[in-house]
Protein 1
Amino acid sequence: MAIDPAGGPQRDTWGSKTAFVLAAAGSAIGLGNIWGFPTVAAQNGGAAFLVIYLLAVALIGAPVMLAELVVGRHTQRNPVGAFKAIMPGSAWWLVGALGVLTGLMILSFYSVIAGWTLAYILKTATGVFGPDADTGAIFTNLAGDPLQALFWHFLFMVITIAVVVKGVRDGIERWTKVLMPLLFVLLLLLAARAVTLSGGGEGLSFYLNPDFSEVDGRVVLAAVGQAFFSLSLGMGAMITYGSYISKNQDLESSAGWVTGFDTLIAILAGLIIFPTLFHAGLDPNQSGPGMVFVVLTSLLSTIPPAPYGGIVFGTGFFMLLAIAALTSSVSLLEVVTSWGVDEKGWTRKKAAWLIGGAAFVIGIPSALANGAVSWLSAGWPQGPDFLSFMFVVWGQYSLVVGALLISVFVAWVWGVKAAGEEVGADGTGFTTEKLWRFLIRYVCPIAILGVLWTLIEPLF
Ligand code: TRP
């Protein structure tokens, strides 16, 4: 237990550095890696996207991760309270407020996709994905049926709320310790199977042979946005998680580990999805929110011995994916809940149920946007389905704007000196301080502004 420096209520802290790294990695690793990354990469040209993504993670993601953690540990507050604590009487708390709102919105559609993973546990366990299975139709039947889509969305949200009600130590920590490493091993095995499929080579070259001719501002924005989404940055999740870190833990290496793990898992997911996509003869440019589910399940029937290999691997995989999604959705709800507890004075229980309930309701149109209601599914008058629309607005744009403001705040308002002192406060020093200062002061704001500008510029 750490004592709030301002004399407020006592706050939970993580049990150890490993526990924190795993919990933060649990927040970062989720549908964003296994569902989001391949989907966005497919829509944005494959390998060229991967290169830009890796640059975005290294040059922008990692420094912003450290910036968020340091604000959190320094203030031991939720995102709104953290800005108020460092800059009292200013308008900077609005950045935290934007983050809280963004968390609520992301949670609303995240739970829809995570609900599909729950349904898929049942489907794989009962052997639905044999060699003759029409994996596309199975997805359409699930996501296009309003009752099923809403039921799984509801169930997943209730589980998320139940975990958050229990609090940091008992709720979040316990899950991640064993299950994250297990997910990693399973992904390695699936990747080994996927790259050896016939036609897999074509998928690998789509994924690994960059063609930069089609890269434009939109692709770069998608890469930067995806990096923030995948690393859980830009809305204060890492401020909140950082607020539970005790003063003697090494922030710098924690940030490095979380960023590294998360990126590794995303790359692995691509190694599974792209070879299988080409093996199954699907078109990456046509990929919507269901693509990863369709592609993954068509991999299952190729795992020997049929049908048991697919059943065992598939069930195990979707269970782990659901848990990875849960440790992420928990972090989303945790941010908004900690705001309700600290700023509104609600009990944790009341905050989690109220906010989780609101996220369920806001998520209803997203749940109905994959075939159940046609105008939500097709977009109006045209354009993406409602879920994809929410993903782009809240999961990409809002995070990019949030990360810009957070990096400007830490670099120029609070100041790199004060932030650096907090990083070094654990006594392990701050090895990459010069590099971090340069990245957070110049590279992050300028690169993010540049990306936003390429989108706004055509309007003038
Ligand atoms: N990073 C998670 C994923 O990849 C999703 C997530 C959890 C998130 N918390 C977040 C995204 C905070 C943005 C901000 O699935």
Protein 2
Amino acid sequence: MGKDVIIACDFDSAEKTFAFLDKFTGKKPFVKIGMELYYAEGPSIVKEIKKRGHKIFLDLKLHDIPNTVKKGMAVLSRLDVDMTNLHAAGTKRMMEAAIEGLTRPDGTRPLLIAVTQLTSTDQESMENDLLIKAPIDEVVMHYASCARDAGLDGVVCSPLEAGKVHARCGEGFVTVTPGVRFADGDVGDQKRVMTPAEAKKIGSDYIVVGRPITAADDPVAAYERCCREFID
Ligand code: C5P
């Protein structure tokens, strides 16, 4: 499994995104395109970043009836992204349909990762709003197992959950973990954070890092520091 640092390009325009990416003249970082940038610029932003030689995690978190997700994924597979995702809450049948849609005629497909419970959901909101009464840790692990059984490649989870996910679903099941901060950096609005070195120790496969890199005075140096701490 290729350990890598994925930069969350949470910008609202192509202009700001390219101004940021232009700073990287050496190694081309793996980038995450989320709803904000995709809804602002559409598929062209994916194609342009791909053309520049970056790997792309398209973070659109699909969740709909199986047939709709299958067709949506078929369109995304043609964008030639490297990783994309969906909500495990859409059920195993939806996840299986997603894989079918995502698989290209030649049998290849991007990595498909599930969101279990969003980290913004806590025990109280899960019980009161979603009427799910089990402990949230159990729910996260159950959703991860369902994703694995449906044939997905891994889950997005907090770095604190990565070890448990590997223990339950196997070492080859990919963990993609946001909520990463430098030991001497700002935590911001993230609640449960880990340093890149800690994420490495606990076995995360990919870390997703946004503001510690995008808002740094020297984003390239911050990215290189992440790579040094997480990969080397
Ligand atoms: O700026 P920061 O490093 O907090 O960015 C983290 C990125 O990971 C953002 O794009 C955020 O939406 C995403 N993310 C997250 N927590 C999750 C899932 C995704 O922070 N549970």
